[in-house]
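Researcher: For the record, we're logging two predictions in this thread. I'll number them. Prediction 1 follows.
Model: Prediction 1, sequence and structure:
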Amino acid sequence: MASPDPDEALDSAATRCLSLLRRVASSPKLPPPLNASLRRLIAAELRSLLLRPRPLPCPLSSNLGHLEAVFHVVLHPAVHGVSRVARPLGPVPVHVDVACSLRRAPAWVFVSDRNPSRVSWRGSPGERGRGVRARVAEALAAARAAARALRPEKLLFVFARGVGDGVAGGLVDEFGAEEIGFFDELEVFEELEGGWMGVRMVDSELLQWAESRKPKVFEIDIRGEFVDVRDRASSSVNLNLKDEEELDLSDPFSSLISKIRPNCTSSENVINFDTTVMIALVSGISNGGAEQLLKGPENEMRARFKSNYDFVIMQAKSELQHPILPELENVIARNKGIVCQSVCSEFKEIASMCGGPSEKIRADKLVKRLLVVPDSPSTRLMDLPTTRKLALKNKIVFGTGDHWRAPTLTANMGFVRAVSQTSMSLLTIEHRPRALIGI
């Protein structure tokens, strides 16, 4: 078979670069700073391709395949909370392609797009004496030496074009790695009401990429904290049959909280509630009061909400355009809700002081559906320095979710961004804010 024309390969690579740039720009999986960082790397690769002389004197060599592989790792449904892309981490810096939460545990991902025939276990002159063995040992040393706030519990090695038996055997025999079918089953099945099974669709181009490349993936576990919610007594949820009978399922709020699973025992189905989401759920704005607010006389509304007037009116307009309860139901339904003691106390106090009669009733119903757990922040989050942006109060709230391996449902994105800037991967789910309006 004739070798591909180098100039045609160059044109094809430039087209792939442009396509990858568009896909990254439109992806919601990466926070804006990381999205911009990855796009800068792709744009630099595109500039390099466009500056190559023509005709090319030798076969095309490019870093594009590696960047494509990194992005497809980010797209994987088991990857969340990406905090770093293609950056050095650790006290003795090691290049980490993706720092993230992998199946709710902090992880570092290392990606290779090299031809398997050019990848050896112990190295060769063509690899400057450094084979996969040395790179894995370096990654493990950096991970174990990292500060607890940044220390991963899993290392993932992704060989985007596969890898030979010698390397695979070395990973398993010398480092206790396990080969996993990371890209084998990308369709995600979930149980729906009535016993039906649903399929959550995965990015079609990710499926095509995995099928065409046949990547090999190896995982190394590094022991860390772990909490299994099955160790917690489900009786801690203050719920009984009478409470269930009081829920009017024709009411959107009652229908939503009825779908919280108070006795769910799987650690994979737990969500940590912070104060912002509890207020959003019970707010009069979220529960039919938005139109009433907008119809009220402006002078009365300004006198009522004072400096918060613009904030409340903006939320009311947003609610009429995009109601928040259906969005929250998609996140909360069929999951167990936990709330740490400090959040529960704060929420009750705010509802008592600022809530109207209906908001107070909803607040009482919501608390009864949640498992109240002690403040138990994870060591790694508490190890972050306490600053104005990383306030102790928020470290306790988000740290308790981290301790339980539960994403925190929150509108406090200032804290989330501050944590991300430390390179820590933290599981969070963002929601739009709502305020109590006294009805």
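Researcher: Logged. Prediction 2.
Model: Prediction 2, sequence and structure:
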Amino acid sequence: MDSFHFWIDLACVVLPLLVLDAWHLRSTLPPTRTYQSPYVAGTLFVASAIASNFFAFHIGSSVAVNFSIVSLTLNFFLLTPLWSLFWMFVYIVVQIALSVYLMSHGHLSWHSVMHTMHILPKSLAVVMVYISLMMLCSYATKSENPYRRSYWFALALFFYASLDFVIVQREHQLIGFPIQLFVTYVLGFIALWLICVRLVHAVQAVDATKSAARTREQYELIGQLAASMAHEIRNPITVVRGFAQLMAHHPDTSATHRTYLDTIIAELDQADAMIASYLQLAQMGTDEEKSQISVKAVVDNALHLLMPYAQSHAVTLYSECDENAMVFADRDCLLQSAIHLIKNAIESHDRAGIVNVSVQIEGKWVVWRIADDGRGMDAQTLKWLGQPHYTTHSNGTGLGLTFVYKTVHELGGNVEVTSQVDHGTTFLVRIPKANSMATRKATHAAPVQP
């Protein structure tokens, strides 16, 4: 094997990814923003693939190999399918132009064009097989976590590399099926792919750490604000609201003025609700308040409290809860989290609909699902969920989901959200289960009774 060309070819693939990682870590952009920029990532990976073609190395006596396919696969792994197709088209056009140029030795000739057109159909057929595999993998794994997606892409890369080896074997008329050459050829691609994916995952882990640190800082700031403003603001609000109510009920108050006073009272109530949300965030989470509680009991309580609200929105609530799902948590915080999630699910409907709430035990986790068939959310909205003050409701405080995320994270759990516009949203909450010797008894799904 030509070791010099091997290392140069390897550098062509890895160095652009390292540059992208370094830029990403030093930038002030939101997490994963650089990777999701189709202009930056796409340009780097296409340039990497083109450069890799110039430094092909040999394995065995005559089989030429380059790692350009790994760079192109990173496009499909990190970018959207449409952008991946666009950059694949750019790569094909540039490769055809370079082939014509190199075969004509810098002088465009009819012979070089015809020769390129002669070999083009077979090359395009192989490329179409590769694109089909990558697109299938992209769509089939779009809801999977990044680690699982990387292994599916590795499997797709294995199938393509195996097919490519068979084609190379026929072109070079290799005798028999050289298994050692095949293993070297295919595993080389897989090994480099896993190295590149590991670099991506390392950057994503750093992103997660930075995001968690920013979230903690925001929570601390909210707590400080709540402690300093609660009494100073709440007391005057109570006084003003009381006098506004007296004036609204005074017989000399006109209907127009009564409308103005009702607006004042409503806005004061909104301000008081926001202060209450701040206090709720600031006062939650002490170990002394935690105990082993039944998640089913908490969910049933929340559903009972929200039943009239659901009926007013023409929404039917369903529940399916494991009676033995126990967690070690503060009951009031967990109840408030349940109310926030179910209330949001109810409010997501513009028409009659359904909200399904289920609680199950999966291994060491209590898994809690809240699914609705309401408006759903786009990808941009999903990015901001849980951030303080971000809300999609005109009269919301933007602190409800912040409270939920903080509660779950302090319990050692996590929250996952999947949503599709006009098809509904599903919140998946995982909380470590409490130690319990009780056996599992699953209940059957049934409508919640008023």
